[in-house]
């Protein structure tokens, strides 16, 4: 399994989905995630969250087929970006916010936690 | 070049160099150098004039139009030399690579070495037109930058291939500058590449129009995803995060 992953882990899939570049930053109370989504319009972005995942499916405005690349790749038409990220902490899916600008999708996910102020004696 | 050396510059063809200006655009933050250098090669129609080989490089070759090539290539003519790579530079190859390149730049009597790269900007999303900052390795280089009115990076750390390139050029008495455009750290940034080319133009005056780079930005970003990911993975080993730090001897 591990060996296969080392050889075949690619940023594209046979299903016509591309893996987007993304970045995750832990900001303490929130997790900030950004995705680079070229050729995508805001209205074609779908974001769904659970308490420990975020999934983005983003349809490209034009499909892409690199006709001279690789063996099987040249026969695949890529249509969308798709990525699910799992977090090591629980987030509050209802409080997530997102913005999209210059092809960059940014999602802010507040962490689920009960904060208790500790007094100093 | 001696085959025993760790990094070998292999010249193909016989270019008679006339004090060329070198453009070095190796993979780094935002792939700014790579995107800018390959765009310059394409626009100027530069021919492949050599490649770089090393036992420190990954055992990777690239196929273009059915032809086998080294991913570490050199393009240009007697006046301009462009160094680029289609795979990330392994951190342990940086010292021998920059030494071998600087030796070769000296041998071809380069009058100026320009490293083009990015300067990570957290708020890049909100920047319409990335600014370019410069570093010079000598008094001569600083004078050249001043004459072209490029903003200087006055304090801070620089890390990666271009940082060591500056030093190796200094050791060989070669004038070197680095031009850095504000960029997305881990996303390919054709906009930053356009800014950096406009700066390079002040020195090279090749008449490269960046309009197409902006028009084709999305297509370039799509093609650059894999190299960006490889490059981002080697960034921690390159100590890239130090570029955000304040030097203790700041004055």
Feature tags:
heterodimer, A: 121 residues, mainly beta, Immunoglobulin-like, four-stranded mixed sheet, 1 helix, elongated, B: 251 residues, two-stranded antiparallel sheet, 24% strand, globular
Give a written overview of the molecule.
The complex is a heterodimer of chains A (121) and B (251). Chain A has a single domain (15-110), classed as Immunoglobulin-like (Sandwich), CATH 2.60.40.790. Chain A is 6% helix and 48% strand. Chain A has one helix spanning 2-8, and strands at residues 17-18, 21-26, 30-36, 40-49, 53-64, 78-86, 97-101, 104-110. Chain A has a four-stranded mixed beta sheet with strand order 1-6-5-4, with no helix packed on it. Chain A has a four-stranded antiparallel beta sheet with strand order 2-3-8-7, with no helix packed on it. The termini of chain A are far apart. In chain B, helix 3 (139-147) links the parallel strand 9 (132-136) and strand 10. Chain B is globular and about 45 Å long. The N and C termini of chain B lie far apart (43 Å). Chains A and B meet through loops of A and helix 7 and helix 8 of B.
